[in-house]
Design goal:
heterodimer, A: mainly alpha, B: mainly alpha, about 55% helix, elongated
Chain lengths: ~240, ~80
């Protein structure tokens, strides 16, 4: 049964990646192109000022823009989709019949919503997605570490929230126990957010509207990914569980 | 509970814990799946960015747009 769930989760993830690629291509890629144009014009200015050719980045493209926003984007999305879809299916396999007395489609939709919040939204509140030209190349190590730390904190906060809810369920009753769980989640997130460093690396003249559009597009991609995984996996899982 | 079930309109409800998949059935798939998934996620999110297993920038440049749009720090 778990094997069948894993297959279906990866399939749902790949389907989600397909839709997300189409959406990204139509909505998000124009923002990436604008950001790259901004970056290029800045580099051109810097070169004119200093007349130094220390930048080895622009000397010959390794991968063309067409490949980056075509096959490269699709490959990245597919790997990401299959991976998160597979993990999602294992979470579902554990949660089904344990977490709540709801049917497979409801459970899958609820889990997907939760995952969207925990994996995509909460880490992005502290470290929002950045377009090209935003972010100093020499801080990439610390920014990456901090981002993953925030992601881990978000997952840990969720586990803590479920523990708190389970512990208090009998004493407080279901509704208040859930509220206590949510409060615990928020507390852990606030602490992690306060402890982790902040980065202010948006160039002063980077267009604010472009930054906003890029970030909203990125959020839209995540929403589409998780919605597709939750809904399509729910359908497939229900059909499989009916047979069991 | 009845109102919730009616609202969610999900006719196929698991009955008791008998519906749950046994943990020993899940564990090997979950562990192996997580391992493979982490590998895939690493190459999409981090390789030739903060950490490099391979020299060069080909992987970074290939998944460049996906990395930006999925919210990972890219460069």
């Amino acid at each position: 049964m778990t094997k069948d769930m894993l297959w279906r989760g990866m399939l749902a993830g790949i389907l989600a990646a397909l839709l997300a690629t189409l959406f990204a291509r139509a909505v998000a890629e124009p923002q990436v192109d604008h950001a790259i144009a901004f970056e290029a014009s800045h580099e051109a200015q810097e070169h004119a000022h200093h007349d130094r050719h220390g930048h080895d980045e622009d000397e010959g493209e390794i991968v063309s823009r067409a490949t980056q926003k075509g096959l490269g984007l699709f490959t990245a999305m597919t790997l990401y989709g299959a991976a998160i879809g597979g993990i999602f299916s294992q979470l579902f396999a554990y949660a089904y019949g344990r977490l709540a007395r709801v049917g497979p489609r409801t459970l899958a939709a609820m889990l997907a919503m939760l995952a969207f919040l925990v994996i995509a939204v909460v880490p992005a509140l502290k470290y929002p997605p950045n377009p090209p030209a935003v972010g100093q190349p020499d801080t990439i190590q610390i920014r990456t570490a901090a981002y993953f730390a925030m992601l881990v904190a978000s997952v840990v906060a969720t586990i803590v929230a479920f523990r708190v809810k389970a512990m208090l369920a009998e004493r407080l009753g279901g509704f208040d126990a859930v509220l206590a769980g949510i409060a615990a989640f928020i507390a852990v997130i606030l602490i992690a957010g306060a402890l982790l460093p902040g980065f202010d690396e948006v160039p002063a003249d980077f267009p604010a509207a472009l930054l906003w559009r890029f970030r909203v597009s990125a959020l839209g991609i995540q929403a589409l990914l998780w919605a597709t995984i939750g809904l399509s996996f729910g359908l497939m899982a229900e059909r499989r569980l009916r047979r069991a | 509970m009845a109102a919730t079930a009616a609202f969610l309109d999900d006719p196929f409800l698991p009955v008791g814990d008998a519906a749950a998949i046994p943990l020993k059935d899940i564990l090997p798939w979950a562990v192996f799946g997580l391992l493979i998934a982490m590998l895939a996620l690493y190459f999409v999110s981090t390789e030739q960015g903060a950490v490099s297993l391979f020299d060069g920038k080909a992987v970074h440049e290939f998944v460049h747009d996906g990395r930006h749009l999925l919210g990972f720090p890219c460069h």
